[in-house]
Amino acid sequence: MGMGYLIWRFITQVIGESSAVMLSHRPFIMDGRTRYTDYVFRALSKASISALAAFTIVAIAFLFSPMANIEGFASLVVTVPVFLVNVFALGVIAALLGARYPDIHELTTTIFLFGFLLTPILWDAANVPTDSVRAKLMYVNPAYHLVQMIRSPFLGGHVESITWMYVGIMTSVMLVLATVLYRRYARFIPLWI
After folding, report:
1. Cα separation, 15 vs 68, whole angstroms
2. In the structure, what pLDDT confidence band is assigned to residue 159 with cuts at 50, 70 and 90?
């Protein structure tokens, strides 16, 4: 549960801050000396420092847990970069939307509150019947796959092939979408804010 919450908090912190980052850095943007993606990197690095501090506590708890799988730490070499690329791409999209529509920050907060209940962080995904509506919503939820990709190896489980396919497709789509939207709309950010 601790690892799932840590991942969820990281996602919400980056996306939530990214959706308001352009408005909060308006004087710097008007100065025109910084790339707009640097502000998203700032949100990502701030969340990374916070997550790293929390991860040390979760790692210590894992070492004393009978369910812990030490080999799961090796999987972080692959899963964390993929996770960071996805969160960064989402952050760029949220920053562009937040610059254009200033109230998007409140919408993201509401979406993440609802998504927290839909993502298996406080409950176990294995206890959900596979043919239920809840299971279908869970498998469509991108946060579920991002959480499972990192958390499953720690608990001695394996990452399902559907999760790898989902994350692979999502990473490709998010990178292309973020790049296209940034190239098309970044020049309008000073006008929007």
Report:
1. 30
2. confident
From residue 23, alpha-carbon distances to 14, 178, 187 in Å are: 15, 19, 15
pTM: 0.85
- Read off the pLDDT band of 86 (50, 70, 90): very high
Integer Rg of the chain from CA: 18
| Sign of the alpha-carbon torsion through 42, 149, 178, 8 | negative
Buried b vs exposed e over 93-102: b needs ≥16 C-beta within 10 Å?
bbbbbbbeee
Chain centroid to Cα 19, Å, comes to: 13
Answer positive or negative: Cα dihedral of 138, 179, 9, 68. positive
Q: Which amino acid is at 48?
A: S
pLDDT at 74: 79
> In whole numbers, what is the pLDDT of the chain averaged over residues?
84
- The domain limits of the chain are 2-192
The Cα 83–Cα 145 span in angstroms is 10
